Amino acid sequence: MNPRREPRGGRSSLFDGIEEGGIRAASSYSHEINEHENERALEGLQDRVILLKRLSGDINEEVDTHNRMLDRMGNDMDSSRGILSGTMDRFKTVFETKSSRRMLTLVASFVGLFLVIYYLTR
Which helix (H) or strand (E) holds 89? Predict the structure, then answer.
């Protein structure tokens, strides 16, 4: 046997253990880094989900508020339409009877009512 080979063999076995341990340590370290990055990404994703949930809740509240407002406006328009149609029916009645005195009274009362409403809302 060659005496020179033995020390090399001894050294290579010595270095083989260190290199394998170093590779395992690097692999374990890399795995820990990946886990840490995954946890940070997951936390960021959870924050975004919470934000989107809040945002969708706010949008839902806003839509509900607008729907209630539109319903009230629709009811107000219906009542206004009823009042206006009643007024138009009265004007038709006045024009059909051709009574100038009655027409004058109705027009004057309508103008007076309009002026009172105008000054009260002002």
Answer: helix 5-97
